[in-house]
């Protein structure tokens, strides 16, 4: 799904949300959450193709795939967390969003630790 289609669907969801909000606010939030999930799944396929191309390029160029994969995982965690936290905030659950953001920061730090260790070992070896 292209960005114009997603934006058009988003506008329709907004109109539907405004109409449902007048009658039953609970149902309106489910419409938004369902659209958010469908939008994410739609974009995930496109992102996967791009990531596979970058991984193939890194393998051909001799770059260690482990480092590139780690960076992709960190970016994925950040994007997924941001997406879910915005949905939580939209649903009125800001406290949960804060906890999820903290958990994602710890997960990213844990992923970065082996890379940081390798960099520090390289620096020590040079000295």
What does this structure look like?
By secondary structure, this protein is mainly alpha-helical. It folds into two domains: 1-45; 64-127. The chain contains four helices and no strands. The termini are far apart. The model has no long low-confidence stretch (mean pLDDT 85).
Keywords:
mainly alpha, single chain, 4 helices, 0% strand, 127 residues, elongated
Q: Number of domains in the coordinates? A: 2
Give me the secondary-structure category: mainly alpha
**Low-pLDDT segments:** none
For the largest beta-sheet, the strand count, sense and barrel status come to: none
- The shape is elongated
What's the structural blueprint in terms of helices and strands?
Layout: H1 3-23, H2 25-61, H3 65-90, H4 94-126
């Amino acid at each position: 799904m292209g960005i114009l289609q997603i934006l058009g669907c988003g506008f329709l969801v907004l109109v539907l949300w405004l109409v449902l909000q007048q009658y039953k606010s609970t149902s309106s939030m489910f419409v938004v959450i369902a659209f958010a999930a469908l939008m994410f799944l739609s974009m995930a396929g496109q992102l996967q193709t791009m990531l596979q191309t970058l991984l193939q390029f890194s393998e051909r160029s001799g770059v260690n795939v482990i480092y590139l994969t780690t960076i992709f995982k960190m970016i994925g965690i950040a994007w997924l967390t941001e997406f879910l936290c915005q949905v939580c905030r939209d649903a009125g659950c800001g406290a949960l969003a804060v906890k999820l953001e903290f958990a994602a920061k710890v997960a990213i730090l844990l992923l970065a630790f082996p890379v940081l260790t390798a960099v520090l070992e390289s620096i020590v070896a040079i000295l």
